[in-house]
Amino acid sequence: MALSDLPRRARGAFSLSPPSWATPWRAKPAADAGRRGPRIAVLGNCQARGVAQAMRLLAPDSPVRFLPMGTLGRDHGHIDGLVSTLASSDHVFSQLFPAGLLPGGDITVLRRRDPRTRMFPTIVFSAFHPDMVYAGRVEDLAALKLARSPLGQYHSAIALCAHRLGLTAAQTERLFREDVFRRLGYLDQWEPAVRELVGGGAMVGFGLEREMSRWGRRGAFMHVINHPKVFVIADIARRLLVESGFTPEPVEIEDYLGDELARDVVWPVYPPIAEVYGLTGSYLFKTKPRGDAFPDLYDLPGFLAASFALYDAAEPGDLACARVEAWIAAPEIVAMFRAA
Fold this sequence. Notes:
By secondary structure, the protein is α/β, with parallel strands linked by helices.
């Protein structure tokens, strides 16, 4: 399934990337030594971790604490514990988090208990990567029992569907072409993706119309559907600070901190899709590296072969995907796949 196939309340949970879920970043106490300004707490997923890091740079007098969404239950036990932890902060910024991650309540309860909480959106934008989906058993959103792929938990919907229909990896490769993308709606995703992104911002009181125009002018502003590039993170951090009375340092985040999420998975913008947006596309898939090792890279044949090897070893129910189910129920799409 893609994020857009899920109820809005669930999308925050599915935006938890493996780094923020499995190995949450912890600020070392020494990092805030000498900072005597207003204390800041940032709660959320891997994007929020980037926002916290950006705030450390933009507001160098303020101690900044990041609270990972994925470990709220383990770290705080109950909503009461989280409220107690946040009481020592002067400013609290949070993404939406659903019920089930923390006993006692969700973001609605937190905002009622601590009205200072200022929300900011989770950035999800699929127009550059419309083929990217999740697969797996989703009954328990907090557990996130998602199927593995060569790129963590991100799958190609075309690959999943082709495997389900019994095609080989070589046959599937022939489906990665413009007419297939057009038939599947991949070339018409800009407006729906913009509406979804802007609507998500409006839902939490953080309009994104101006930011969307600025990001769009910079080309592909996402590494994957839920990992924005660092200038997107920087814009959110800077705006939160300004609207809270800070005067951020006039510096560019990428000049000082680099792009942490670029170290994670990078999904290519397929050439026919890139052409629609005046970009240069490719089929070069990048994994998240282990430690300081160079990341594994896959071309399209290699990515499909590695995907099919994992799918062959998986139980069918573990590869559930709402989009694939919809395609298989459409005879004309099945015929297009089988003709590959």
